[in-house]
TrEMBL record:
The gene is gpmA. HAMAP family: PGAM_GpmA. The record marks 183 as: Transition state stabilizer. Its EC number is 5.4.2.11. GO terms for molecular function: phosphoglycerate mutase activity. Coiled coil: none annotated. It catalyses: (2R)-2-phosphoglycerate = (2R)-3-phosphoglycerate. GO terms for biological process: gluconeogenesis; glycolytic process. Keywords: Gluconeogenesis, Glycolysis, Isomerase. Substrate binds at residues 9-16, 22-23, 61, 88-91, 99, 115-116, 184-185. Belongs to the phosphoglycerate mutase family. BPG-dependent PGAM subfamily. Catalyzes the interconversion of 2-phosphoglycerate and 3-phosphoglycerate. This is 2,3-bisphosphoglycerate-dependent phosphoglycerate mutase. The active site is at residues 10, 88.
Length: 249
C-alpha cells in the first residue's frame, strides 16, 4: 500500500515580504501569500489530490494558508488537527530582526550558522522580550521546559517527530490523503527525516512558499520518489532560489 502526504509551506507573510526573521511571531499572510495559497488549492484540485485531513501549526499564516487552499479545492470541510509541534523554528533573539542588517552586522558565516546550521541555535529570547511567545495563551498547557526560547533545526526535528509518528502516520496508515500546512523550517525537519538527508546536506535545502510538495510513501513510509514532487516544479525552482538568497544584497 502507498500513501499520499502533501507538504505545504504557508504563502508569503507580511514579515517574509519585509525580510524579517519570524519564527514563532504570529504574523499574517499578505495579498501575495493569500494568492499563493489559492494557487496551491488549485494545484491540489487539478492534480486530483484532495486531502482527507489537514494538520497545521498554531500560527495563523499556516492556518489561513490551509483554509484558503482547502476552500479553493472545495475541501474546506475536512478534519483539522493542529499542534505547536508543527510551528516554525523558534528564531530566538533574532525574531523581529532584519535579515540583511543581521548579515551585515555579524558577517556571512555567523548569519549562515544561525540560519542554516543543523545544531547551533541563535541566542535565546528572554520570556518578557517584545517578540517572545513564552506567555502566549496558546502554549499555556506546555510545561516551561517545552516552550522554546530559541531552536536550531535539530531541536525542531526532536519536537516535530513525535507528532509525525503519533498523529500523521496513523492518518496515512488508514489510507487518507494527508495535507500538512506548516513552515519553512518545520517542513525542512520533516523532509530531512523522510529523505534521510544528512545534518550537513540539510543546510542546502530550502522550501518555497505556497507550492504543494507531494510525497508518495511506500508501506514503510519511505518516499517512492526521493525529494517528492512539487506540483509546480518551475515555480518551485525559482522560489527556492529566492529563499536561499534572503539576506543577500
Ligand atoms: O524567518 C523565519 O522564520 C524563516 C522562515 O520565513 O526564515 P529562514 O528561511 O531565514 O529560516
Amino acid at each position: 500500500m502507498t500513501s499520499k502526504l502533501i507538504l505545504l509551506r504557508h504563502g508569503e507573510s507580511e514579515w517574509n515580504a519585509k525580510n524579517l526573521f519570524t519564527g514563532w511571531v504570529d504574523v499574517n499572510l499578505n495579498d501575495k501569500g493569500r494568492a499563493e495559497a489559492e494557487r496551491g488549492g488549485q494545484l491540489l484540485q487539478s492534480n486530483d489530490l484532495l486531502p482527507d485531513v489537514v494538520h497545521t501549526s498554531l500560527l495563523k499564516r499556516a492556518i489561513n494558508t490551509a483554509n484558503i487552499a482547502l476552500v479553493t479545492a472545495d475541501r474546506g470541510w475536512i478534519e483539522t488537527k493542529r499542534s505547536w509541534r508543527l510551528n516554525e523554528r523558534h528564531y530566538g533573539a533574532l525574531q523581529g530582526l532584519d535579515k540583511s542588517a543581521t548579515r551585515e552586522k555579524y558577517g556571512d558565516e555567523q548569519f549562515m550558522i544561525w540560519r542554516r546550521s543543523y545544531d547551533t541555535p541563535p541566542p535565546a529570547l528572554e520570556p518578557d522580550a517584545e517578540y517572545s511567545q513564552f506567555n502566549d495563551p496558546r502554549y499555556a498547557s506546555l510545561p516551561p521546559e517545552l516552550r522554546p526560547q530559541t531552536e536550531c533545526l535539530a531541536d525542531v526535528v526532536v519536537r516535530m517527530l513525535p507528532y509525525y509518528y503519533d498523529e500523521i502516520v496513523p492518518d496515512l496508515a488508514t489510507g487518507k490523503t494527508v495535507l500538512v500546512a506548516a513552515h519553512g523550517n518545520s517542513i525542512r525537519a520533516l523532509v530531512k527525516h523522510l529523505d534521510g538527508i544528512s545534518d550537513a546536506d540539510i543546510a542546502g535545502l530550502n522550501i518555497p512558499t505556497g507550492i504543494p510538495l507531494l510525497y508518495e510513501l511506500d508501506d514503510a513510509y519511505r518516499p517512492i520518489t526521493p525529494g517528492g514532487q512539487y506540483l509546480d516544479p518551475d515555480a518551485a525552482a525559482e522560489a527556492i532560489q529566492a529563499v536561499a538568497n534572503q539576506g543577500k544584497k
